[in-house]
Amino acid sequence: MQIANVLGQATSTVKHPSLQGWKLLVVQPLGVDGKEDGEPLLAIDHLGAGGAHRVIISNDGSGAREVIGDKNSPVRWMVLGICD
Predict the structure, then answer these.
(1) Global pTM?
(2) What is the pLDDT of residue 49?
């Protein structure tokens, strides 16, 4: 798990069938010091996070695929929670 800032929402005209109906967010992971850590990522979101939210993300691909319900989905990152 890692903390990240939501940079915005991704729009895709063509995507894997397992991702239909899922909101895709562009998130910037943060290090323990609160500074940017690496490149922005795409994460699925079912909690309704939006721009300027701070979220908890996970790179547990098997857990994300279980949530989606497709073991062959290419998803890796997902939003687990919204920080207050």
Answers:
(1) 0.88
(2) 92
